[in-house]
Specification:
alpha+beta, elongated, 27% strand, 9 helices, 8-stranded mixed β-sheet, 4-stranded mixed β-sheet
């Protein structure tokens, strides 16, 4: 079992590296964490297969203390010291395993599909023995053995090539889709006073002013400088919004009053489980008139009842009383931490 310390020291930078090592119950456990800048939070966990049950728990802990960045977590476990030196055979249990293996061995036409091979690599020759024994026991009358994917692992590829395969199957790339995937263009949403639609070229001056307003954007929870590479140009903000929609990572709605751009509503951080986050900001000269709340409510309704989301989340700083009132008017509280108040709205 992997045990994690609850003493967490928060860091401000998205770029970093950390390594920890500890021995528990004869198992030497090493955890390495690498992070780089990213507009959204992207957590990847790699660990031994026999500990894969803990992957979601590790990912959840990282997400609990991290808001943005691409984070890679590598866990290695050396259990050699925990191995028992005396081996006994439970013949009755072994017979039950053998019977189950006979049922689970998958034969597809004239091909035997080999799903699992596990052994302690320090015992020389154990893998070839497993392969030969498995083939002899389960493949009489079959023409092929499918040894399955090597997951891009160099060691697995080298090992499997030693058995002189007749051919290598082509790789298949699977792209995960979210609720934005079917959309080709940003839809048009209407309220009593406002129109929400896609950003246009003529919005660029006002949109740039909104994005560069540090006084208002301190409540936005995102500083564009963290992802800026090189000199900022007048095309950057609009280009990022369009690129995010093209990649189906976010949809940015321009909020318009009598055809004039006055702010934006953004649906982003899709979790591929029916959830996403909604944010809204208004130019300072239009604040205090309820435009943000009106646009936010319409975007939320569209997200849940037309886009097909099941859960919509939002957050605001503790000090941002205006946003707290707006969110509380159309969503329900969903906890808090040292920095943010969280809200949600479900179908």
């Amino acid at each position: 079992m992997l045990l994690w310390r609850e003493t967490i020291h928060l860091v401000k930078s998205m770029t970093g590296y950390g390594r920890a090592r500890e021995t528990r119950n004869g198992r030497d456990i090493t955890v390495e964490v690498r992070s780089v800048n990213n507009r959204y939070l992207d957590v990847s966990v790699k660990m031994p297969r026999n500990f894969i049950f803990a992957e979601d728990a590790v990912k959840a802990m990282v997400q609990r203390y991290t808001s943005r960045g691409k984070v890679d977590v590598f866990v290695t476990v050396d259990a050699s010291a925990a191995d028992v030196t005396q081996v006994s055979v439970n013949r009755e249990l072994a017979a039950q395993y053998a019977a189950a293996l006979n049922e689970l061995a998958e034969v597809c036409g004239d091909t035997l599909v080999c799903h699992i091979e596990k052994a302690l690599p320090r015992y020389e020759g154990v893998y070839p023995f497993i392969v030969q024994s498995f083939a002899a026991a389960f493949s009489p009358g079959l023409s092929w053995i499918n040894r399955e994917d090597d997951a891009g692992d160099r060691g697995l590829r080298t090992s499997k090539l030693q058995y002189l395969p007749a051919f290598l199957g082509a790789k298949v790339r699977v792209l995960a889709r979210n609720e934005l995937s079917p959309l080709e263009t940003v839809p048009v949403l209407k309220t009593e006073r406002l129109i929400l639609d896609g950003l246009r070229e003529e919005d660029k001056p006002l949109y740039n002013r909104l994005c560069l307003d540090d006084e208002r954007n301190r409540w936005w929870g995102y500083d564009y400088r963290e992802d800026l590479e090189g000199e900022l140009t007048e095309e950057d903000f609009l280009s990022v919004a369009r690129e995010d929609f093209q990649k189906k990572q976010a949809v940015n709605f321009a909020i318009r009053l009598d055809g004039r751009f006055i702010g934006e509503a953004v649906i982003y951080r899709f979790d591929y489980k029916g959830g996403a986050e909604l944010g809204c900001r208004i130019l300072p000269e239009y604040a205090g008139n309820g435009y943000g709340a009106e646009a936010f409510r319409r975007a939320a309704e569209w997200s849940l009842y037309q886009l097909g989301l099941y859960r919509l989340r939002a957050k605001c700083f503790h000090e941002n009383e205006a946003s707290r009132r707006m969110l509380a008017a159309c969503m329900r509280p969903d906890g808090e931490d040292e920095t943010f108040l969280y809200f949600e709205k479900r179908v």
